[in-house]
Amino acid sequence: MTLFAGFESGRVAVNGVEISYVAAGTGDPVLLLHGFPQNKALWAKIAPALVALGYRVVCADLRGYGQSSKPVADANLSNYSFRAMAVDQVELMSRLGYNRFHVVGHDRGARVAHRLCLDHEGAVASVTLIDIVPTVQLLSDLRKEVAQSYWHWFFLAQPAPFPEEMIKANPDLFYETCLFGWGGAIATDFADDQLMAYRASWHDHDAISGSCNDYRAAVKVDFANDLQDRERLVAAPSLVLYGESGAMARLYDMPSVWIPFCANLEVHAVPGGHFFPDIETERVASHVFQFLQRHPMSKQG
């Protein structure tokens, strides 16, 4: 298939960077945010399904990823924090004409979406968080089983240029270990053109640095921000989806772990591991659509 056939595309200058996006459809706006080690190509099947169901869908690359800007990290790493990334996306949506929208995020994109809900509550009509536990929960309760499954957090967070240089030596080996190792997936589980788009980023040295800076900021900046906001609830209607055979399901009781963080929560398991949005696209689109139908913007204040 051709990725995002019929979608408009562009790069918008916001918050000191340029954010790459594709968009199509009419109706309530829905922002889709990818995770690591991917880019907006993650949504190449889900986005058209949501467009066909009556939504205006925007898929964006996070800063440091895909075709968005990959700035040099500030000394304090704040420009790679989820807070900075959330501002990017709020400003992108505003520039596109949407001051309020639904947001759906997987992996790092879900962490950005969580922070977006806390810092920009009025912008969020609903949020869907896919296969994460809150950052503060993961880093506060760092059991050996969690550390073993999430080893990449601590490798990527090492000072530059160590992880960058190690990855550059064989980027396909490193990223395939992540993509195929976190849920029993294999290459044929992924659409060829989506995998090609991922590989293009894997061989972009600036993108390698961008993702390392993302993880460095998570440990040094985001954890502190989340500790400060630990008692704040996500006010927007919240949907958590997780892979029933993935690490999150093995390591956490997913409904229980999210209840203290969300005022209006529903949780569903989806077959597969961490990358089930690439594989169970129809199930994911169906869950998101049904959730959005229960929380239309037209019925919200």
| Strand order in the sheet with the most strands | 1-2-4-3-5-6-7-8
CATH homologous superfamily heading:
Alpha/Beta hydrolase fold, catalytic domain
Multimeric state = single chain
Given helix and strand content, the structural type is alpha/beta
Shape: globular
Specify the biggest β-sheet. 8 strands, mixed
The helicity comes to: 40-55%
Overall average residue pLDDT: 96
Number of domains: 1
Protein architecture, described:
This protein is of the alpha/beta class. It has helices at 46-52, 82-95, 108-119, 135-140, 144-149, 151-156, 162-169, 171-181, 192-202, 205-228, 247-251, 254-258, 276-279, 281-294; strands spanning 8-14, 17-24, 29-33, 56-60, 101-106, 124-130, 238-243, 265-270. Strands 1-2-4-3-5-6-7-8 form an eight-stranded mixed sheet, with helices on both faces. Helix 1 (46-52) crosses helix 14, helix 7 (162-169) crosses helix 8 (171-181) and helix 7 packs across helix 10.
Quick structural gist:
With 301 residues, the protein is α/β, with parallel strands linked by helices.
Write the topology of this structure:
Layout: E1 8-14, E2 17-24, E3 29-33, H1 46-52, E4 56-60, H2 82-95, E5 101-106, H3 108-119, E6 124-130, H4 135-140, H5 144-149, H6 151-156, H7 162-169, H8 171-181, H9 192-202, H10 205-228, E7 238-243, H11 247-251, H12 254-258, E8 265-270, H13 276-279, H14 281-294
Parallel strand pairs: 3-4, 3-5, 5-6, 6-7, 7-8
Antiparallel strand pairs: 1-2, 2-4
Helix pairs in contact: 1-14, 2-3, 7-8, 7-10
